[in-house]
Amino acid sequence: xxxxxxxxxxxxxxxxxxxxxxxxxxxxxxxxxxxxxxxxxxxxxxxxxxxxxxxxxxxxxxxxxxxxxxxxxxxxxxxxxxxxxxxxxxxxxxxxxxxxxxxxxxxxxxxxxxxxxxxxxxxxxxxxxxxxxxxxxxxxxxxxxxxxxxxxxxxxxxxxxxxxxxxxxxxxxxxxxxxxxxxxxxxxxxxxxxxxxxxxxxxxxxxxxxxxxxxxxxxxxxxxxxxxxxxxxxxxxxxxxxxxxxxx
Length: 248
Hints:
The relative contact order is 0.18. A hairpin with a 2-residue loop joins β2 (26-27) and β3. Strands 5-4-1-6-10-7-11 form a 7-stranded mixed sheet, sandwiched between helices. Strands 2-3 form a two-stranded antiparallel ribbon. A two-stranded antiparallel ribbon has the order 8-9. With 248 residues, it is of the alpha/beta class. The model has no long low-confidence stretch (mean pLDDT 92). The chain is built from 8 helices and 11 strands.
């Protein structure tokens, strides 16, 4: 594997319309951001940094021994926040791990890093997992469709692809909020204006697709629990407690 420096950036903001203060919500005795940080720190990345616009999150991260940087509060997306934090890093590959994925498997992070290191033609990559149509009816769960070459065709809050009566179901895939970028692609991404599709669906990855930046998709069969609401936090805690019991 090519020796290219890799930085994991965890964008974390305090304000959230569905769950204010989400990164500091307690999960099995620790703030959620600490669970995400520890998963990232167990990977093969060279560094892990929380990029935040809130002193409460910054203080919580440094209190448990993590590294955090303060960023502007007016970034339109997590990727834009990461780009500001990346200015102080020497890494060439950046992994964006969302601060609301406390159960994301470290193996998935390592697989994404390996994909970027082993294939220099890939400028941006992400992860998807197979799921049921019933499970993905929720617009808070982002769906992705990709081509035979493994490149994303579209991301949506709608249930895609639509299954017409008599049609053959190719399966549906849940998109995980984890991305990998090469520095030059990250620089190009944030220099682009928000696109029509991004503004419509409120999905930053559509900015890349609208502007010809391809996104490679790794399909994983591992599980995680993204936390968008307080109800999701309850589910995540139950899952985490089950994992802790299993590994004793």
